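Lecture notes, unit on binding sites. The following record was shown on slide 14. It pairs a sequence with pyridoxal-5'-phosphate.
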Amino acid sequence: MRKMRRKGLASMAVQTVASTTNSGNAANGGNTVDLGPATALSCRECGHRVPLGPVFACEECFGPLEIAYDFSGHDAEELRKRIEAGPSNIWRYAPLLPVPADVADKPNINPGWTRLVKADNLARELGVTGGLYVKDDSGNPTHSFKDRVVAQALEAARAFGFTTLSCSSTGNLAGAVGAAAARAGFRSCVFIPHDLEQGKIVMAAVYGGDLVGIEGNYDDVNRFCSELIGDPAGEGWGFVNVNLRPYYAEGSKTLAYEICEQLGWRLPDQLVVPIASGSQLTKIDKGLRELIELGLVEDRPYKIFGAQAEGCSPVSTAYKAGHDVVRPQKPDTIAKSLAIGNPADGPYVLDIARRTGGAVEDVDDGQIVDAIRLLARTEGIFAETAGGVTVGVTKKLIEAGVLDPSLTTVVLNTGDGLKTLDAVAGTGLTATIRPNLDSFREAGLA
Ligand SMILES: *Cc1c(COP(=O)(O)O)cnc(C)c1O
Ligand SMILES: [Zn+2]
């Protein structure tokens, strides 16, 4: 393994598959692993197929690998009934995910089926008449959307015989991996920049796994993990967002499924989705297209809008300039969970925004804080900075006449405000008074 390190990540990853999966004669597309309807990995660029395994890049063209499925034989009405009778978590969609059929019986964090809030007060403030909804993913077990993707990666790790779960993270992912590993009896070893906020460190460390601070920034952490994957020290390790990335990414499809089911098996007209690597946005689009193909929702147009922070806006910058390539940026924003300066799925996000008639927009840190307060004040939902980004971008796009206020619109809140308290640090007491009525009146509160 060690001498492969020079050949780059993709070739290392492809070679790992041979040593980790057995070539077999099982019914499942020649794979011995049982990941339900998943049949193979397929290159998004050139279509080259390889058996299901812990690989993420095409051996032919280095393009990203995606899960290919066999969804044949589904009757739409039966499938809808089966989903509705399923558990109140993402496993109700097990027939559409790369997981074994009995996934709901295995120890996992079982995220999802979070609330879809009809945000009438916010709609009134923003002038939306067609119905405005907030998909509030702060309700997941570790209070961010990351539980959806980690739950998928855990099942893939189990299928491939890994015993350690790992990742590089700036916070949310670390907590999700720590919790999933604890619940499933895996070892976890998670890498973060050593100078993260204390709150994020505690929220990741409390689950009892190893949490390693790296002296460097997030890019340094990533580089280190790439090295570890190609080294014997990393053998038997499932890196949820590297060698398990194709499986991990599919977890985001469940956001699309849930939104449509919660709207009564109906597509929203417009969705506003945050962009870090862009994976979530591309998989929401994939999930919506699958529902159309399966006949679970009516085939009609929808628009996907991407949201970034101005201090890390490589995709919106490319979108506005009319470019197809995304130029990396050095992030500087309070929306740290979205601060990926070189987003892997950036070009695919541009394709989707343009194909669906959406757009990509950004808001500055002040607008993010204002939007966090706006959502809290109108709907009683305390969002993390990523939610401030989507609500802020929604407001901006309505004011610019880009988002149509007469259409049904779903805005994502992907994390809990308790994770980013610093963003609203100025918030506090209205007054401090002595414990008597005179003092209360003097404060002007009577
Ligand atoms: C990771 C994350 C996202 C989306 O990330 P992608 O890399 O674009 O899939 C969105 N919101 C929060 C809070 C996150 O932690
Ligand atoms: Zn390829």
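Take-home: Residues 116-143+252-424 form a domain with the Rossmann fold fold (CATH 3.40.50.1100).
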